[in-house]
Amino acid sequence: MRIIAVDDEKIALEGLLNILKKVAQGEEIQGFRFGKKALEYARDNLCDVAFLDIEMRDLKGTVLAEKLKELNPNINIIFTTGYSEYAPEAFSMHASGYLMKPVTSEKVKRELEELRNPVKGQREKRIHIRTFGNFEVFDPEGRQIKFRYKKTKELLAYLVDRRGDLCSMQECMEILWEDEDPASHISYAKNLRADLRKCLEEAGAGDALARQRGYLAIVPDKVYCDYYEYLKGFSGDGTVYLGEYMNQYEWAQTSRDTLTRD
To answer: Who's near 137: CB < 8 A, 6+ residues apart?
Structure first.
């Protein structure tokens, strides 16, 4: 489980971090005094729980919470504040908890034991693919997977969009180089295929890529993907579609239109 704590008051943050290290031993815990820094970290590291102060100088806690939920709809937001008047706003955002300061070990322990969104075991074994918003891929530890080529990531995005269908490399090249002659990119496409296989294997997800001569496919059961969970109807886990799907890819418009109609 990855936990972040954000409070612009140094003493308050240090106190909360000390408590978290005691009651959540063995978990990954990071503290930040600036909301923007916490957001940068969350973009590259999938977070399960966020303890957020509300009145902060650079970014209000409720605003930060909304941005964190865009990155991971399943994140558990626990507000830590000295102001009771923000409670209605916090719970309208489906926060997991609302702690009045001073924060104590007992309060924190109780909140971690009663999280609104249970921390799923899928991330412990499978890569996590986020399609709602921008397309991003995280390894089982929640770290963003970096590909050697930008087109490798797009190739994987297209395979995810096809939801397990075998796709010929010719088809993939036509998508990746829509306005160019795919034949001029055969060598590059081979490099992309090798890079994709290598990155997935290094992330412990080599079995998530099905390969046949000249064809590739993602294996849906071997990955955790917000899009797939949404299509299964698992709305109870916090996975929601808010009108954005693989925003950086124009070819994803067909799926965006389908999702909007549904």
So the answer is: 127, 128, 129, 130, 144, 145, 153, 156
Average pLDDT over residues 168-186: 90
Topology of 127-261 in CATH?
Answer: Arc Repressor Mutant, subunit A (1.10.10)
Residue 138 DSSP SS3:
strand
Tell me the CATH number of domain 2-113, given options 3.40.367.20, 3.30.450.20, 3.40.50.2300, 3.30.1300.10. 3.40.50.2300
Domain extents in the chain? 2-113, 127-261
Q: How confident is the model at residue 44 (pLDDT cuts 50, 70, 90)?
A: confident
How many Å apart are CA 155 and CA 136, to the nearest integer? 12
**168-177, Cβ contacts within 8 angstroms, sequence gap of 24 or more:** 168/214, 168/215, 169/193, 169/214, 169/215, 169/216, 170/214, 172/216, 175/251, 176/151
Nearest residue to 58 (alpha-carbon basis) of 43, 40, 76: 40
SS3 128: strand
CA quadruple 15, 20, 22, 28: dihedral positive or negative?
negative
pTM as predicted = 0.66
Give pLDDT tens digits for 228-238. Answer: 988 877 544 44
Report the percent of the chain where pLDDT is more than 70: 94
As a whole number of angstroms, the distance between CA 42 and CA 52 comes to 13
Query: Considering the chain, what is the average pLDDT of its residues?
Result: 89
| 226 within 8 A of 234, measured Cβ to Cβ | no
Helical (H) or strand (E) element with 127: strand 127-130
